[in-house]
Amino acid sequence: MEKLRRVAPTSLSVLLLGESGTGKGVLAREIHRLSPRREAPFVQVNSAALAESVLESELFGHEKGAFTGAASQRQGRFELADGGTLFLDEIGEISPSFQAKLLRVLQEREFERVGGTTTIRVDVRIIAATNCGLEAAVAAGRFRSDLYFRLNTVPIRLPPLRERRDDIPAFAARALEQFNRDSERQLTFSPSATAVMRGCSFPGNIRELENCVRRTAILARRPIIRASDFACRGEGCTTQQMIRSAALHAATSSARRPAGAGREPLSQSADSEPRNRPALGRKPGRHRVVDADRLVDALRKVGWSQAKAGRLLGVTSRQVRYALKRHGIKIQKT
Asked: Which position among 38, 94, 117, 213 has the lowest Cβ density within 10 Å, counted as fewest Cβ atoms?
């Protein structure tokens, strides 16, 4: 946020990096709100949702008769955002041929409408966002390096929710507050409910957290939401089921490999994760690391008994206590 406040008053291009659902669109609007352009338009384009031919018309506009269906002249998003901010979401999805057209506009601040010959000049601030690694795309030749450096004047990375678990209660409270306003209810979270949410990695990030809160709030029977009200404590959380299915598929694929193929090195760092879930009764490894989701899942299955959870995971009780402390997970009373 400090970096955002420093860059907002300028006209520099900003590249927002982060997984889907981390709030890149929210931050783009905040940059615009804090800038001298706040009274001018904020225009957003989802680059991944449009075909290349449609995207060109959307951004640059078109003249009457430029193509079939162009019954009248149409201004593009660059013209509509003149004096303000243009937010190009999912910029990593545009084709190499369109990247060249976009680069020219960013360099010269001028373009022609599709089917037109008149050069149009605009004053637009560019904020771009992507959930893919543009550096790898540049290295692989899928994304132009000159366009990347033009967009990447000021990069801002939004960490996934699993790296900022202390923020989960605040995001959850905001989502529940919005739900209460929309449904005219007065629900609150119990400490145990907050602990359940803090223990989830939310691979869909804030968007998934908001959905989890709304789904739980709709089905809650009491004004205070408890841990038992969450789907992961009852019939099952669809996200967790999806994660387990992916892990099972990965484990099955690994088991089908020929002997020695893709074998992991014998030494494993303390920060790396074991590829497969240890079998019951396996001798605990000295340096085995337990991730938060597996730990909470195991604890729930055994009634939050640390010793039983350790046996289920193939680690010692001491390692369980260390993992609880490291991930900030509080033992729930059953």
From this structure: 117
Task: Count Cβ neighbours within 10 Å for each residue of 284-322 and write b for 16 or more, e otherwise.
Answer: eeeebbbebbbbbbbbbeeebbbebbbbbbbbbeebbee
pTM > 0.85? no
* pLDDT, tens only, 147-187: 999 999 999 999 999 999 999 999 999 999 999 999 999 99
Quick one: pLDDT at residue 282?
Answer: 41
Tokens, residue 54: 């449609």
Closest C-alpha among 67, 86, 63, 87 to residue 75: 63
Structure-token match 């078109």, residue found: 62
CB within 8 A of 330, min separation 6: which ones?
195, 324
67 and 114 assigned to the same domain: yes
Confidence band of 334 (pLDDT split at 50, 70, 90): low
- Do 7 and 122 belong to one domain? yes
Percentage of the chain beyond pLDDT 90 is 48
Query: 280: part of which helix (H) or strand (E)?
Result: none
- Give 243's contacts (C-beta < 8 A, 6+ positions apart): 203, 293
| 257 lies in some domain | no
Closest CA to 237 of 261, 266, 213: 213
Q: 176 and 148 share a domain?
A: no
